[in-house]
Specification:
This protein has about 700 residues and is of the alpha+beta class. The protein has 21 helices and 24 strands. The chain has four domains: about 55-195, Serine Threonine Protein Phosphatase 5, Tetratricopeptide repeat; about 205-300, Immunoglobulins (Immunoglobulin-like); about 370-525, Nucleoside Triphosphate Pyrophosphohydrolase, CATH 3.90.79; about 535-590 and about 600-680, Nucleoside Triphosphate Pyrophosphohydrolase, CATH 3.90.79. Helix 4 packs parallel to helix 7 and helix 8 (about 135-165) packs antiparallel against helix 9 (about 170-195). It is extended and about 105 Å long. It comes from Edolisoma coerulescens. Pfam families: fn3.
């Protein structure tokens, strides 16, 4: 009966005949596939195809070849070949979950031959077991049928080879005989693997944590036993009762790349018990209860009913900006900025006038003043003018000392590149006071508009955290932007950075380089800073180290060079949520007015957060090169958890109150020497927002 079902399935799906008839044939097939079908079939020249019918034939041939190669690699237990196929082809291209003519899937063969590495690779790629094995009996019957039919075919071919005289047909029969003998041994090994397998043990460990006020996170690990068959899925169950009666819910996890699951839709303040069981081809194993045995969905804000710090702030700022714009309606600058890149193409006279206009082109040299430069880069290439210069425009030729407040104002303007025309009109109206500060800032807006017009793009990118200065009185404000598409710009072209650095002739001495020479020498460092400052943290709870230092006109914050948009930090755990119970414990520790705990005590030794903090504090002190004994007076900031979205949160570790911020001229304790830098606080805040 089972054999008839499989034959009906074969006819219904019009599947291919069995794959290559021998291991050597499989190797030849794989070599052909690697060379002939490595490129996607859609990349062929469509003009060479007769029509859609030819394209469909090619697609089917491509899928047939890749699927056959995968089956043969699994049957030969060639892990390297399986991994290479999974790397170069998608599950759809491999036809990963469509049974072959024997009713088997690649995962079936891997688990029944008990090849755990190949089975895991297939599972992570999304492979499934055959849906036709609805019971242990059906699987056993089907394997017995495959073995019996293979044995019968071997006997038939052996009789033909023995009885026939040597000829070409006999030679072909001998090849078929060897192939069926090999397949007969494979099916017997699969049948023996199934018969000797047993249900899996319970997962080796199940960890339960609070993910939010309405969800729990379950993380589990594979069973320790190596004798049972490969686990292909897990079941998570939850209940309000320790006996799991009644059962409130369950979920089956068959995507095994990450062994964790978040249980949603739970009631805040209710205790839930969780257990996990594993499944293989012999069925479900016993469940493993979680550690701790139950958890209560909650969030630290429930401790005192505190609302999120930033709730409604973005909306309030948008409303405020709208009100400001309403007041300045007479500016008439609410139309989207339109580039003016085509002026040269319209008239020769206009082009000549454009060339001689004093503020309408990029500068080649600096002559004591304040300037703006925009660095656009893509891979190892950088945008330069037709004179092979980095684009530079003048802001103010009488400005020889950039005030920090003006620079910080410029960095805030960088968040509104598309509103420059509107800001210019507003500042122009306000210039009646003849304020020097307003005049300088108006010139900054003019320079930004000029750079945008010359390049033909509005977004000039992120402002580098400090301007470049030289002894000739030049100050260079630098913006950085990575271009990820094949964009074209006005008046500029792409050149390799190394070519620009080697071809440009310096006009200054090494002892007193100009700001432009300094920029060119350090451009790779600035690009690296820009790339690192755009990296995001992976989800989790982090311990951050807050260290400030003050100067006459600014406060600076210590950050790591490898991630300058985030405080010095280490990861505590992957779950970003702090539960109400954990926050209550932290408040209790803070109210004791004791230093950060370094010794395990009886009442806290079983607290997972306490243990995680111990490890994180030691790791953080090592990172910032502060001896652990010097951190005995450090404190955890207990006023709030810093939430950055829903997936990243921070606890802060603070030096003693007198040493959080170092004053000018004061000895600077608790500050590492290398691998870190200090950013102006406002620059850090802008980078954090980005």
């Amino acid at each position: 009966k089972m054999t008839q079902q499989m034959r009906d399935l074969q006819l219904a799906q019009a599947r291919k005949p069995p794959g290559p008839s021998s291991p050597n044939a499989a190797k030849r097939l794989y070599r052909n596939l690697s060379g002939k079908f490595r490129v996607n079939y859609t990349s062929f020249d469509e003009g060479s195809l007769v029509g859609r019918g030819e394209k469909e034939k090619l697609r089917k041939s491509y899928m047939f070849q890749s699927n056959a190669a995968l089956f043969e690699a699994v049957e030969l237990q060639d892990l390297d070949r399986v991994q290479e196929l999974l790397k170069h082809y998608s599950p759809e291209e491999l036809d990963l979950n469509t049974p072959n003519s024997e009713g088997l899937l690649p995962l079936d063969i891997a688990i029944m031959t008990n090849n755990a590495p190949i089975a895991r690779a297939l599972l992570q790629a999304g492979a499934k077991e055959s849906p036709h094995f609805v019971s242990l009996e059906s699987r056993s019957l089907h394997l017995s049928t495959l073995v019996r039919e293979a044995e019968q075919r071997v006997n038939e071919l052996m009789a033909q080879v023995v009885n026939e005289a040597p000829n070409a047909d006999c030679s072909e029969k001998e090849k078929q005989l060897k192939a069926w003998e090999w397949r007969f041994r494979l099916y017997k090994r699969m049948k023996a693997g199934f018969e000797h397998a047993r249900v899996p043990d319970a997962p080796s460990s199940v960890h339960l944590s609070v993910a939010s006020s309405s969800s729990l996170q379950v993380t589990f690990w594979e069973p320790l036993s190596v004798n049972s068959a490969v686990v292909t899925k897990y079941k998570v169950e939850w209940s309000c009762s320790p006996t799991f009666s009644p059962l409130l819910g369950e979920a089956v996890i068959d995507k095994l790349k990450d062994l964790h699951f978040t249980i949603p839709g739970l009631a805040s303040g209710t205790a839930y018990h969780v257990r996990v069981s594993a499944y293989n081809m012999k069925g479900w194993g016993p469940p493993q209860a979680s550690t701790p045995p139950f958890a209560i969905p909650s969030n630290w804000r429930e401790y005192d009913g505190r609302a999120p710090r930033r709730r409604g702030q973005a909306e309030a700022l948008d409303h405020l900006l709208g009100q400001v714009k309403t007041v300045h309606q007479h500016c008439i600058c609410h139309e989207p900025y339109k580039n003016q890149p085509q002026s040269r193409k319209h008239s020769v006279s206009k082009s000549l006038k454009h060339l001689f206009h004093p503020g309408s082109k990029f500068l080649k040299t600096l002559k004591r003043g304040l300037y703006l430069t925009a660095i656009f880069y893509k891979d190892d290439n950088i945008l330069v003018t037709h004179e092979d210069q980095i684009p530079v425009v003048e802001i103010d030729d009488t400005y020889s000392c950039l005030l920090m407040q003006d620079f910080l104002w410029f960095t805030k303007v960088s968040c509104m590149w598309d509103e420059i025309l509107w800001l210019r009109q507003c500042v122009t109206v306000s210039q009646s006071s003849c304020s020097c500060i307003l005049q300088t800032r108006f010139k900054m807006l003019l320079a930004i508009s000029q750079m945008q017009g010359l390049l033909g793009i509005q977004d000039l990118g992120q402002v580098f955290f400090e301007p470049i200065k030289d002894k000739q009185g030049n100050i260079l404000i630098v913006t950085l932007k990575e271009v990820k598409t094949n964009q074209t710009f006005e008046s500029v072209r792409w050149v390799p950075i190394c070519k620009l650095q080697t071809s440009r002739k310096s006009v200054s001495s090494p002892e007193e380089p100009t700001a432009l020479d300094t920029l060119l020498v350090s451009v790779q460092d600035k690009l690296a800073y820009h790339q690192r400052s755009s990296h995001a943290l992976s989800p989790g709870l982090y311990l951050g180290y807050l260290k400030l230092c003050s100067a006459v006109d600014q406060i600076r914050v210590l950050v790591p060079e490898r991630l300058p948009n985030i405080l010095c930090h280490v990861k505590i755990r992957s779950n970003p949520n702090i539960s109400r119970e954990e926050w209550e414990w932290l408040q209790k520790m803070a109210s004791m007015e004791e230093p950060v705990p370094t010794e395990t005590e009886a009442d806290t030794s079983q607290n997972p957060l306490f243990q995680e903090l111990q490890v994180a504090i030691k790791e953080l002190m090592t990172l910032v090169n502060i001896p652990l004994q010097e951190a005995k007076d450090f404190r955890l900031y207990s006023q709030e958890v810093l939430d950055f979205g829903d997936q990243v949160s921070f606890l802060l570790l603070l030096p003693p109150s007198d040493d959080v911020c170092t004053a000018p001229g004061q000895n600077n304790p608790y500050t590492p020497c290398s691998g870190f830098l200090t950013l102006p606080l406002q620059i850090f805040e802008l980078g954090e927002e980005r």
